[in-house]
Sequence to fold (556 residues):
Amino acid sequence: MRQRLSVIGLDGATFRLILPWIEQGRLPTLKRMMAGGAWGQLESTIHPLSPQAWASFMTGKNPGKHGIFEFVEHKPCSYDLCYVNGGCVRGKKAWNLLSEAGKRVCIINVPFTYPPEPVNGCLLAGLDAPGPRSDFCHPPGLLHELTQRFGEYQLRQDPYRATPESYLKEIFGQFDYLLNVAKYLKAKEAWDLFVVVFESTDLVQHFYWHYAFPEAFGIPPTEKKALAEAILSVYTKIDQGLNEFLTLCQADETVMVMSDHGFSPCRKIFFMDSWLRQQGYLAYHPENQGSYWMTRTLHLGFQRYFPKRLKEYVTSLVPGLRDKVRSYLTSTPIDWRHTKAFSLGIDSTNIFINVKGRFPDGIVGEGQEYEALRGEIIQKLGDLVDPDTGEKVVQRVYRREELYEGDCLNKAPDLLVTWRDFEYNTRRAYGREGDDLFGSSLAFSDVSDHSSLQKSGTHHLNGIFISKGPFIRQLEGVQGARIIDLAPTMLYLLGERIPEDMDGTVLEGIFKDDFLSKHPVRLRSPGLEKSPAAHSYSEDEEKYVKEKLQGLGYVD
Fold:
């Protein structure tokens, strides 16, 4: 029997919402899939951030091998940052291997697949594509076909100039568009592997969590029912769309539903740069302090005391004013020759050590000095407590080699901080934090001058995994499933050998015994792989990607 597989990615979907809503009868399609198949939590990467999670999904490898850790990375021997994309992912993806084996694949909207690689089938890149008019489609002629049928292709919606009401409409619109594209391409051919990712769950949870669960933030409920029920509405719509998609699947086809990470409320913000400065690990040039503190004080007063309409009027008179002020406050020249450690990340918290030889003005020696500094920072962060609760807030600080291994380990942060139940995040304060190290997540969650959205939901380690098909057993509570296990599991189900350099393993426990006995897992040498020809964005493309990621709250 020919095996076929469809994978539906629900970015950020979480059982903490799905299970209660299934009990209430709200999600009948997901309930039916779970009742007839195998399901359980799917462990993401640390950090559970889209770039490294989706790269791990497609390669079956840890970030130390595929080389993706964040939305940005340091240029070699430099403090400067550049934006990463799918062209930076090292190692072959599952669909590359299947294409080489002569199988037909259709890949739609998977983040970090730009620029699109030639595959035996079609590929429409996702989040990292620089706009709907870029070359994000393979084969190129397919884009014309889709736009003729459905209108201009809709990539991930940017909340940069949105209101909560308008953005919710955009989320629904983009889902409808992508579902129509997926159903159209699904019906065109009996694909061996079909993958589509819907980002609606991620977007609505980031910006509407406080409307759905105001008690988590100590705020009164909203009087706007559409906002209070925004997350449920999106899940309900996805459940209905999933039912439509399943009608196009063959009887002998296996279907997987997965997410790259889960979700939780982000209750508080921690100002890591301020903490590093207070601890003496980070310093600024003394000659810049006067202008910095004056700008900081003026900005603080402007934010706190000016009425909203007056602020909007001032910023309309001087376009880009706030971005320029933010840029100045966040990039005030760091005195690298007196800085031992610095941070990077918003939805993740990474700390880099200013090591001699790795950075131009590095001051920390390798070996004993490096290890002693990492140990000291780990100990101090481990003692950190929330002043409002008296409870420790750091779950664990990892050394990079505790999480990753491979040729790209040198690109990884030196320390990775995980917060208690992932309910804290880091932000740069733009001069608003005073001497406090903690702040309200809602007070520091605005995504732009032009948007009234607030970012209140954050990524969690545990995503979802559901699978149903002729070879899948009924199994409630799949144990130990990780996102890096999905690539080898996809290859196994489709009859291919598993490269020995994959870190993930086949999820054998989800398969029926007779299928396992007839189809033992087979390994093969990974063979020689070329390093990726990293794709650099043009100036305009980088501006587009930067604005999109800033609007989503992923980068400063």
Q: What stands out?
A: The longest strand covers residues 4-10.
